[in-house]
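Hi V.,

You were right to ask for the full record rather than a summary. Here it is.
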Amino acid sequence: MGMSCDNKGGGAELRFEDISKNFGGKAALSGVTFTLPAGSFAALIGESGCGKTTLLRVAAGFEKPDGGRVYIGGRDVTDLPPGERRCGTVFQDFALFPHMSAAGNIAFVLRARKRPRADGRLRRMSAKEARAEAEKLLDYLGLGGMAPRKASTLSGGEKQRVAIARAVATGADVLLLDEPTSALDGMSRLRFRSWLAELRAKTGVTVLCVTHDREEAMASGGTVCVMSEGRLLRTGSAEEVYCDPRSEEAARLTGPCGVLRGAVRGGRAVFPGGPEAACDGEEGSAAEAYVRPENVAIGRDKDAGEYKGVVTACAFSGGGYAVTVNALCGRLEARSDVPYTEGEEIYFGIKDLKAVSVN
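Predicted structure:
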């Protein structure tokens, strides 16, 4: 990837195979199977306690699964300690030594590693070699100006980038990030996102990132993995997960969404009040559709659509109004340029309606 430092790990495939983990008799992870290709990026999203960080810790080796296997680069690492997995993990506290400089923090981990000599024996880097290597890495990653600064003087975003650079310095093939932007403001988040994309392009490292920030996950350009109660509900690109969530939980966790409830009739999902959509499922089985606001048109006359509903809420949301509509087919969320009154009857139409059988 063009990196002059000899500590680049590159990227490796990360694979979870039927992972389960219990704490106090409660399932934290249940049957999680997922493959992250080498050099790619995935964001784990879901509510607190859904198992995101537990899965990250299982990958890193800080938690051993009760069932299933973990593979990195095709190698079964389930029973290996963290130091033998070629994983770099960055938790929310960053764990930098405050009295050391940015370069010193990285040099510290470089000196801890043993490297083969020409005669095959292992040796540790000298302090001078490690410092030079650390400065070279920071410069390569666009952080050269931070090299002499004490960690205690760095901002949250700067500490974070140094902590990630330190993880890369260990020769990690997989980078595991736990809520990397939770302490950053909006502009800092954008800068970090850009820097992380550049780091991935330069090093080829595989990245698995836990986040509560739905918008950040959807804008990451990688795979989005939606979790709930220890289960992996949906994986795919942001567009796939958003437009076709396939379950009410996954829909709710990935953005504003209305839910229609009906039944399968003659190979179609038929919803009260008229809407229909193609649907695989047994005749008479329950069906649902998950409708995003941008697919709902509302108005005060039939030009908006052929279905009727009643406005139950309307709130200004910056540049427009968020409108909630109750109809025979279910509850809908819509966007409007004009306000509506609670209790007002309106017409609506739905485009790109997709339905799933839920039995």
